Amino acid sequence: MPDEHPSKCPKLQSEEINRDPGTCKQICEFPINKQDEIRRAYLIIGPYQPKDIVYPYNDDTHCHRFQPSWFVSHKDWLEYSPSMDALYCLPCYLFKKPIGHPGSDVFISIGFNNWKKLIEKQTSKELENNRLRLKTSIECARWLAFQACAFRGHDESLDSKNRGNFIELIKLTSTFNDKVASVVLENALGNAKYTSPTIQKEIFHILANNVRNAIREEIGDAKFCILVDEAWDEDTIALTLKNEICAVLSCYNLHIENIRGQGYDGASNMHGEWNGLQALFLKDCPYAYYVHCMAHRLQLALVIASREVKDVHQFFDHLVNIINIVVGSSKRNDELQHAQAEQVENMIASNEIKTGRGANQIGTLQRAGDTRWGSHFQSICSLIKMFDAICKVINTISEEGANYKQHGDVEGAYQVLTSFEFILILHLMKEVMGITNVLCQALQQQSQDLLNAMHIVSTTKSLIQKLRDDGWEPLLASVISFCEQHEIDIPDMNARYTKGRGRYRRQDDNLTMEHHFRIGIFTVAIDFQLQELKSRFCALTTEFVILSSALNPNDAFRLSKIVDICNLVKKYYPQDFTEHEQELLESQLRHYELDVIKHPDFQNMSTISELCRGLKISGKSKIYFLIDRLIRLVLTLPVSTTTTERAFSAMKLLKTRLRNRMEDELLADNMIVYIEKEIAGKFTIEMIMDEFYSMKNRRQA
Q: Hey, where are the domains in the chain?
């Protein structure tokens, strides 16, 4: 074999440097005064690694032989002898002496050529590196999915300063672990980096399928309900929606006859009596009872009540205009916060307010959302709290306005803001929406039962009625006190009220200012609110709800009646109880009445869901299994579609302007992993990796 580096050792004779480690002399065989020189020469030349030769098989099966790729992974020390078909260690040859023990001279003079053993060891190492590399990719993909972050970058080349969140997160992870850094990205094999978009999609698909299967397993053979909301850019015909829903249910072996509840909004294609989605399902399953989303009902009640009363409708228009003026830019928002800080300092100096940790926080004026009337309550509260600061900002804008239009808009807003009528409606809406906000928040809970929701609706109506009967005097006193504090003109309540101006004004000698404010605004606004709540939620006072109330543990099971519970089963759930079970249910109810209803552990329960958990924990669900089954069926009825609304909110986070080309399957996988992150976080990395390798005939080593 020719010498690869003949010019690097000119002082030594060619016969003294034998490049083949299998036939060369041992260092100890050279004259002692030349040994160091020989060592330096070999170190300069480097390991002998012939590559352009044919490596022979060393067994009859022709399965194993030397692999030239080993030169790459061990380039600093590995040598190969063509004559001996064995590998050697250059540092061992130069500095280690055989000591006579078996195996001590393998890498020095004898050579190692057990390729099968070496390949198995190398395969195990590659397998370990591949799994570590894949584990890093899965962890990074799952973290980005939980945070609703984009994966890919505009330029993922090596020269790019930002290669996308996925690759950049892998790089960040590698900085904390040298073992990870040694196997990922550029240190990985070209065909096993596990960073391509295809790999990302497969990881997502595995996570999403595991989440879907976990949900399906949780449902088991139990009855279930469906919650549906539609997007505007899709075909939302009722029959199309039904076919799509049936396809999904069939995919997971969920039968339509097991549906026991439907929850949609009030759109005609959903709740139509003849051709709506709920009617189509009722034809296939007469026990799939439809419940119009209660949160949507409340939304409609608030919107219509605000539009029917002209003064209240104008108030909300003015409110939106004032908010847009005050927080319309970052500069104005900074001025508002600066004005609040000055106000707080002055009030602290005059001992009007106390200091403490977390007290006197500086905030901003909350914007009201068109589709979430709970946000209007926050806007009203923040306006009352920051009234002085808002007036100061409006005056500043009026003085520094860029043009006459801006001057006029701001001065008009200031006149409205400092009018007695605006302040009155402001405080009235705070009282009314403070009451309805409790119901609004309760209906948006992820877990809410129909009976408890009905109870909150009832208390909301009672509180609004009480406000109408007894709330005028306290409200007027609060409004007058507020006006005096902020130097707002208070009209004479006994003066005549004049409507309109100029020749078109109308005046009634019997109509006073107090009559206008109390009857024309206060009473009318509350009456419209009560009317809408009663009309929108009247369907709850049906026979079904009345009979279901017999299961309610509230007030020490005050409404519990055996007859009502039996009638509930016979009329609404005959498919779920045989005739024999209906007879047995009555016997169980007699024992239940003496056992559970009188038991001290069940006395303080207020909702039917608490009762269901209590029966499960105490083990009484096995004794009264028919009652437990009935309770679960009642709990299956949906209250609101806030779960689907949250899915649309998640879609806004995931499918942004920069990610609008995402495929439907990837979007669906991404959404279910993000929404059900609690479930997705329970799957182990090893489980995901094993499923990933089983998807295709992948190279694991």
A: 6-113, 299-541, 543-636
Write the CA distances from 337 to 117, 323, 344, 359, 390, integer angstroms. Answer: 73, 14, 11, 15, 10
User: 3-class SS at 425?
Assistant: helix
**Secondary-structure breakdown of the chain: helix, strand, coil percentages, each rounded to the nearest 5:** 60, 5, 35
3-state class of 664 per DSSP?
helix
Q: Which residues, at least 6 apart from 229, have a Cβ–Cβ distance to it below 8 Å?
A: 264, 265, 641, 644, 645, 647, 648
Count other C-beta atoms under 10 Å from residue 275's C-beta.
12
Q: Which residues, other chains included, contact 558 with Cβ-Cβ below 8 Å and sequence gap of 6+?
A: none
Which of these, 605, 639, 305, lies nearest to 457 by C-alpha position? 639
Which residue is listed with tokens 């409404």?
Answer: 559
Place of tokens 């003064």: 311
What does 534-556 look like in DSSP terms, one character per residue?
Answer: HHHSGGGGSHHHHHHGGG--HHH
The residues near 585 (Cβ < 8 Å, ≥ 6 apart) are: 565, 566, 569, 577, 626, 627, 630
Q: Distance between CA 118 and CA 134 in Å, rounded?
A: 24
Contact present, 219 and 256 (Cβ < 8 Å) = no
CA 36 from centroid of its chain's CA atoms: 69
Sign of the Cα pseudo-torsion (202, 208, 211, 216, in order): negative
* β 496-499/506-512 pair status: antiparallel
What is the C-alpha to C-alpha distance for residues 501 and 514, in angstroms, rounded to an integer?
A: 19
What values do phi and psi take at 604, rounded to 5? -95, 10
- In this predicted structure, the answer to whether residue 657 has a pLDDT above a threshold of 80 is no
**642-654 and 664-675 helices cross at what angle (nearest 10)?**
120
Please count the other Cβ atoms lying within 10 Å of the Cβ belonging to residue 107: 22
Helices (H), 523-641: 524-536, 543-548, 554-557, 562-572, 579-595, 608-618, 620-623, 625-636
**Confidence band for 398, pLDDT divided at 50, 70 and 90:** confident
Exposed / middle / buried, residue 176 (Cβ in 10 Å: 0-12, 13-18, 19+): exposed
Q: Which of 1-5, 241-245, 440-444 has the highest mean pLDDT?
A: 241-245
Which stretch of 145-159, 375-389, 552-566 has the lowest confidence by average pLDDT? 552-566
What is the distance between the alpha carbons of residues 441 and 448, in angstroms, rounded to a whole number?
11
Rg (CA), the chain: 39
Q: How crowded is residue 540: how many other Cβ atoms within 10 Å of its Cβ?
A: 19
**Per-residue pLDDT tens over the stretch 409-427:** 788 888 888 899 999 999 9
Give the whole-angstrom CA distance, residue 388 versus residue 386.
6
368 close to 320: Cβ distance less than 8 angstroms: yes
The closest alpha carbon to 260, from 225, 284, 234, 210, belongs to 225
Rounded CA-CA distance 567/565 in Å is 5
Reply yes or no on whether the pLDDT at 585 is more than 60.
yes
Q: Contact, 108 vs 88, CB < 8 A?
A: yes
In single-letter form, the type of residue at position 439 comes to: L
Place of tokens 């692999």: 67
Give the 3-state secondary structure of residue 295: helix
What three-state secondary structure class fits 84?
coil
